[in-house]
Amino acid sequence: MKSFYLIIFFGLGLLQGQAQSPDVLLSYAEDAMDSKQWPIAFEWAKQAYESDTTSFEAQAVLAVCAYEIKEFELSSRLFLRMNAKDLGQLQPDALFYVASAKKQMGEYEEAEIYFRSFLKKSKSTNPYFKSKAKQEIKNCLWAKEYVGKIDSLHHYRLPQKYQHKEADILPRFIEDNVHFYFKSEGHWNGSFIQDTVVVVESNPEILAVSVLNQLAVGISNQNGIPKLVECQLNKDSLWTTKKEIELLNEDGGYVGMPCLANIDGIITLFFVSDREGGEGGKDIWISRFQKNGTWQKPFNAGKKVNSQDDELAPFYAQERLFFSSSWLEGFGGWDVYYAEGRPGSFALATNAGKPINSNFNDWGLSIYPEKNIGFFASDRPLNDSTSLPPCCTDIYAFVWQPKLDSIPTKKDSLMLVVTDVNMQLPIKLYFHNDEPNPNSLDTLTTFTFLETTTNYFSLKSKYISKLTEQEKDNKFIEEEVSAFYENELQLGINKLAKLEQDLLVELKKGNHVRVTVRGFASPRAASDYNRRISLRRISSIRNQWMQDPRFTAYIQSGSLELIGIPFGESKAASDVSDDLFNEKKSIYSKGARLERRVEIERVEIERILADSICLKWNETLSYLGRVKPGSQHVISFELTNCGNTTLYIEDVESSCGCTVPEVTTTEILPKEKVTIKATYTVSQKSEGKEIRFVSVHIKGLPTQILTIESIVTR
Question: To bridge 206 with a disulfide, which of 96, 153, 232, 239 should be the other Cys (CB 3.0-4.6 Å)?
Answer without folding.
Answer: 239
